[in-house]
Amino acid sequence: MRGALAALGGLIAGLAALCVAELVSAAVRPEAGPVTAVGGAVIDRTPAPVKDFAVRNFGNDDKLVLQLGILALLALFAMAVGVASLRYRKVGSAAVLVFGAIGALAAVERPDGRVSDALPSIVGGLVAGGVLYLLAGRLVSRPSPDGDPGTDGTSTRAAETGDTGDTGDTDGSAGANPGTFDRRGFVIAATAAAAASAGAGLVGRRLNASGAAEAAASRRTIVLPAPSSPAPPIPAGSDLKLRGLSSFTTSNKDFYRVDTALVVPRVDADSWRLRIHGKGVPRPLTLSFRDLLRRRLIERDITLTCVSNEVGGPYVGNARWIGVPLADLLREAGVKPPSKGGPADQLVSRSVDGMTIGTPVDAVMDGRDAMLAVGMNGEPLPFDHGFPVRMVVPGLYGYVSACKWLEDLELTTFADYDAYWVKRSWSREAPIKTQSRIDTPRPFASPKAGRVPVAGVAWAQHRGIERVEVRVDGGDWNPAKLAAQDTEDTWRQWMWEWPATSGSHTLEVRATDRDGDTQTDKRVGTVPDGATGWHSVVVAVD
Fold it and tell me: Whole-model pTM?
């Protein structure tokens, strides 16, 4: 019984740590909470192959899985410390402080860490240590004055007062009337601690939510101006509208999300500022969100791709973006690309959560539609996709171009600075590779024999798709029908009518871009600069 109650006491102490930390984080910032801080530290230190495994197997739920894992480990740790506190009360209580120290260290060592970020974990750890010490004291066995336990096991004065006489690391109770402890006092103290902790957590959660509500309110007031350069209408025939085929335009809610943010930043557009500075910037700029909206805006259909996208993977999507041409801002600041004598060859974009992304200066100033996007599919950017401002650069994987929640642009060189992912074994430069995917039929589908539409999408941003071919069971390649091309910066749908025969078959697809380069059949993983290989599906035709 005492062991189970001790484990419960440890859990309550852990609950106290998290809830008090949540309350304190409301006075600091939500990202300073211990679970978020530790989770962020885990992400920062995760090897690229492990990170790829998480994205591949858990998709958009990878962060939820990480947080649940951290909570599960915390619960096990708390229960173990709770049980240990039966014999080593002071040591057990002090061990809880270790959790607080780990959270504090993780918080301040994050890329955007501040000294104040340590406060939630420290205060939470101190409170948890006190709670565990109190609860463990109620479980210490003490003999009655006459040598016999009272009727409820709590008749001794020590039990009534909670004074255990603890003078060392052990409780001194080994062999002394086991089972005689302040059961009623433990229940009362545990209930009070759990209730107070839950109350603190709820208040902290509400206070943190109020800041998010202000950011949401600022987003609701935004009316995007009509772009000076609107996107042309999507050509008829760009969307083949086949069942199972990805739609040409990806809705905001279906657009993939891959980033390291455990807590999605909620930035108030009214207080947001962007700074442009660095090497070879004679006229640094500081811009507000309203400043951007007053500038020349362009609207473009652009397909984005994550470098973590495996062959045939889902991390690619097409949207209509509205934003300020990035090259215009850089020229206004006096920036020259290295091809024209400028000293900086890397543009480092920084997010409000500390993420850094390095982009070649020549790429954003070579005439492509690189922009600071403020709108997505006709509305202000969703929070998940970078509100209020993000970068969009056609033709480059997101980890070298698509900084979300942008707040700073610094001109530097690749020799002087390695951005976040480059420090983790990814390439400095990463143009998107030509890829294609079979959307229908799905793997292990069972279509009927006869004419079966095989369809999917292909992409080679900033080059365009010239040809798509499909083959069955390693046979000859068959040209697929291509949907109308919108622009070279968007994906392209394709379809081939397969005269399917009964049995198990393997379908493969490959694409050729407008530079004449055809996808290689060599399967390579995503690290360090994107996957290669032909996508294939196996089906069983009835």
Answer: 0.84
